[in-house]
Amino acid sequence: MNLKPEELIREAMRANPDVGDSDDTKGGLTMERLTTDTPKNNLEMALNLFYVKDKEVWVRGYGKNGADISLFDLSRDLTRWNCPYVDLDISDDSFSMMMAEWLWEDVESFEHVLALLYQAAWVCAELREHLKQFEDTKRTPEQIEALEAAIMGKAVAQITEFEGLPIARLRELAVADQEGHVIVLPCKVGQRVFALLDTDKHISECEVKQIDLGIVNGIGFVGLEPIGARGREYGVALKGFGKTVFLTREEAEKALAEME
């Protein structure tokens, strides 16, 4: 299932309310939160320096008077102060393209360092947002997996049929198969097959007219009527499938070639 973390939790908790929070000491599961919108120390500030707001990367505390500033604006300011030769009257897309090109500059150049900072910033912001989604669920990765399994189990339990066949009937067939009561036939009545009949050195396309499992004498057979000789019927042992009777003309032609 492809659910967002918050949707996953909402669904799973309805199906399995016994799964604990991330601070549940019973299971010994603990997870210290790393993302926050209000960092209170240097470590929290470093972990949350870059973040996403309104689908744009922002840098915390690097704007005027310690305000937050968008990565675009900060990068443009740094470029203006250190690379006055650059014309900044360009779109954000063009600026991003320029940053990508600057990654190929000499590693000791300011252009390369700025481009590296720009790339690292949006990567960190993207990773932070993904981590924040999971931390907002207040569940550990192990609990998320358990909850997803609970949803899958509930979904499977709600299935009433498969390809038009009721689940109850499928269950009956599975039990019968385990007990050895199920026989898989090589074909069905009315199906077209290809046979090497009698001593004929050619392939006859036939229609299956009847199937006898040989419950009494133990010898099962299939009644075949050649398409070109209606009214004539041949009995072929079930064991003949794959030897003298085939489901496709290609298989019959291969067997005939091997006989010659």
What does this structure look like?
The protein has helices spanning 5-15, 42-47, 71-82, 92-102, 110-136, 141-157, 167-178, 249-259, and strands at residues 50-53, 56-59, 69-70, 161-162, 165-166, 192-195, 204-212, 221-226, 234-237, 245-246. The protein has 260 residues and is an alpha+beta fold. The strands form 3 sheets. Strands 9-8-7-6-10 form a 5-stranded antiparallel sheet, with helices on one face. A 3-stranded antiparallel sheet has the order 1-2-3. Strands 4-5 form a two-stranded antiparallel sheet. The radius of gyration is 36 Å and the shape is elongated. Residues 19-29 have low confidence and may be disordered.
Short description:
By secondary structure, this protein is of the alpha+beta class. It has helices spanning 5-15, 42-47, 71-82, 92-102, 110-136, 141-157, 167-178, 249-259, and strands at residues 50-53, 56-59, 69-70, 161-162, 165-166, 192-195, 204-212, 221-226, 234-237, 245-246.
Keywords summarizing the entry:
alpha+beta, 260 residues, 5-stranded antiparallel beta sheet, 41% helix
